[in-house]
Amino acid sequence: MDAVVVDGLSMTYRVPVRDGGLRAAARALVRREYRDVHAVHDLSFRIPAGQVVGFLGRNGAGKTTTMKILAGILHPTSGQAQVLGEFPWRRHNHYLREIALIRGSQPIGDAPELTVLDSFRYQQVLYEIADAQFRRNLAELSELLDLDGILQRQVRALSLGERMRAGLALALVYRPKVLFLDEPTIGLDVSAAKTIRTFIAEYSARTGATVLLTSHAMADVESLCPRLILIDDGVLAFDGRRDELSSAFAPAKLIRVVVTDDDPDLTPYGDVLERDGNQWLLRVGRDAVPATTARLLSRFAVADLSVEEPSLENVMDQAFQRLRRTRDIAS
Fold it and tell me: Would you give the DSSP letter of residue 20?
């Protein structure tokens, strides 16, 4: 069963524009001019229940707009979207109790004078969670996110990492079935970000929740998302597994090799990216990897050899560059 179905989704904003200067500002008071901004255009994809999917793109690609539509905050210009069989923008109460939109830039509620536990109690009342269920959910979330030490503290006194952990638990205390995560680790240190990633993986595994995650931190995507959806300028550019993304946009692999020969020269075997003594890192075309490794093994005394995919960050950079060139040619 598909938890999320997006079919031909488009979103166009009409935004005011004017030239600079006082004269243009005065003229705009009488007659405003507008232009259309196409944030999302004819976007289609499906996400089966329980799947964790990375939703990637550059700033302004349409990721957050799409998530806001799926969470029921925005109404699309055209096309359809269904989440758990519901049209999100109808904002039925029973639907809003099944989903959560979690933004890293807004980690926990708007009442900083409350304690963390008070915030949870308010959430219990808002979502009409039975006492027994609330206690079980809070105990589980406290264990997974190490909240016991901050439950009695005011929200205003929490560090950013603590606010993120508390905000994530607050959004999940009513056990939503679909999570829309928008930059969930933004601004966090390495340890706090790892805690959040581990929790998301465990929460999805325990509850079967469907997760659509957008992040510029590739560590989030690599550790959580076997499937990636890439959009560019609001248009679907890729939908598939991580290794398929590498094959589609990164034409080379990396060969890391250690040889024991005296003064070896490996420059004829690929592009040399790094060299430290007898340790070499070569970039080689995908089709040439088998032949190149065979030549290296037959020519040199090889102590160690490994073939690696380029980093996801490198693949994404190459993908964006290719998409930009394609768009420039088309225009």
Answer: S
Strands of 235-241's sheet in order across: 99-103, 178-182, 210-214, 52-56, 227-232, 235-241
Is 325 among the domain residues? Answer: no
Domain-ending residue, one of 205, 222, 246: 246
- Contact between 308 and 253 under an 8 Å Cβ cutoff? The reply is yes
Q: Are residues 133 and 276 in the same domain?
A: no
Q: How far apart are the first and last CA of the chain?
A: 40
Structure tokens at 290: 């088998």
Q: Are 223 and 192 in contact (CB under 8 A)?
A: no
66 and 26 part of one domain:
yes
Residue 162's Cβ-count burial label (10 Å; 0-12, 13-18, 19+) is buried
Q: Is residue 327 part of a domain?
A: no
Q: Summarize pLDDT for 120-169 with one digit per residue, the tens.
A: 999 999 899 999 999 999 998 888 888 999 999 998 888 888 888 888 88
Q: Helix, strand, coil shares of the chain as percentages rounded to 5?
A: 40, 30, 30
| Prediction pTM value | 0.83
- The dihedral region occupied by 72, where left means phi > 0, alpha psi between -120 and 50, and beta the remainder, is left
| Domains contained in the chain, number | 2
**Listed residue (237, 239, 234) closest to 65, CA to CA:** 234
Beta bridge partner(s), residue 86: 83
Residues spanned by the domain of 186:
2-246
